Amino acid sequence: MKKQLLLLTAALMISFVAQAQEKKFNGYAIGFYNLENLFDTEHDEGHNDYQYLPDGSNKWNELKYSHKLANMSKVLSEMGTDRIPNGCAVIGCSEVENARCMRDLCEQPALKARNFQFVHIEGPDYRGVDCALIYQPSLFTVRDVKLVPYVYEKEEDIQKGRATRGFLTVSGTLAGEHVTVIVNHWPSRFSESYYRELAGRQVRVLRDSLKREDPNVKIIIMGDMNDDPHNKSMVEGVGCKSEIDETGPDDMFNPWYNVLLKQKQGTLKYDGRWNLFDQIVVSQNLLNQKGQKDFSTLKLWKWDIFKRDYLFQTEGKYKGGTKRTHAGGVWLDGYSDHLPTVIYLMKEKK
User: pLDDT tens digits, residue range 31-43?
Assistant: First the structure.
């Protein structure tokens, strides 16, 4: 009898493994990249873009602009390909001057080959840099787009008429499910922490409003937060948790917390130390919790900082840091002061 039970158990296990092996999955890469001053060569009225004109301090001409477009498209087209050959379905971008830049970017051969399209809304930033989003229409269908303004609360800021980048909110369909992406570029570290904490609180309010409209929406918040994952703006403002099983329905999971604090990896280097400002965080309904491996709906699978040798300085004072477009007033024909980040989602094929 015991032998029969063992044989039956073995048969059931073999059957289960066979069924599991027959399952097939689709993977989807979602990325973010700070393009570090993707400016065209023409002045935009009302914006302080004079550095990036042919007679400006950076001597920004058509040659440099064309090289910048080619360099950015190279990175964007390779993001996600470490795990998914077709690359990213969606990529949020920051530090983009205008729609012309995005149009020229998507016309680059590496992106045009996959028919990348873009979303951009002109914002109020005094330098004229905005957030944008590129996507493959075969993978992601845009439903709705809005730019939610960053609202100053201090009376002195309101009196000065201060304005900064808003929160680009793109609702769409990915893998047959409602997914909304919020692209951010928060106030810089020249401003006190309060202004980024305010951004975090406003993004949380935005997220909650999206959930009220559709309780099943899957939300991805990404951007250059100008703060690290353990800073107050992310932990308390947005409501991020560092562990999957600690993430509740009113929280977001931040996979980059442990990447920075435990793995000591980051996306930009300052004074020899890595920061991780470029974050992508996800809502609880994108998580497998308590050891589950259920991919019957869209779920988070992996996450990476995107790295290539060509993105790093190989010599000189800044060896080991990111290879920028300019450094010390010299055109390096580089990429960005930030590295991109990518998350991977998975869903079982039906």
Answer: 999 999 999 999 9
- Amino acid, single-letter form, for residue 155: E
Say if CB 297 and CB 345 are below 8 A apart: no
CA torsion, points 101, 103, 106, 109, in degrees to nearest 10?
A: -90
Percent of the chain with pLDDT over 70: 94
DSSP string, 124-143: --TT--EEEEEE-TTTEEEE
- Looking at residue 52, the DSSP 8-state letter turns out to be G
d(CA 232, CA 283): 18
Helix (H, G, I), strand (E, B) or coil at 86: coil
Angle at 106 between CA 48 and CA 108, to 5 degrees: 105
Q: What is the CA radius of gyration of the chain?
A: 22
Q: Which H or E run includes 330?
A: strand 330-331
AA letter at 290: K
Q: Per residue in 72-111, pLDDT tens?
A: 999 999 999 999 999 999 999 999 999 999 999 999 999 9
Task: Give the type of residue at 185.
Answer: H
Q: What percent of the chain has pLDDT over 90?
A: 86
The pLDDT, as a whole number, for residue 13 is 47
The residue whose two tokens read 């491996």 is: 293
CA distances from 237 to 23, 47, 197 (A): 39, 30, 6
Element (H, E) at 95: strand 88-96
CA angle 55, 270, 309 (to 5 degrees): 80
d(CA 187, CA 194): 10
Question: Six-digit token pair at 337?
Answer: 């002061």
Residues with Cβ < 8 Å from 201, sequence gap 6 or more? 237
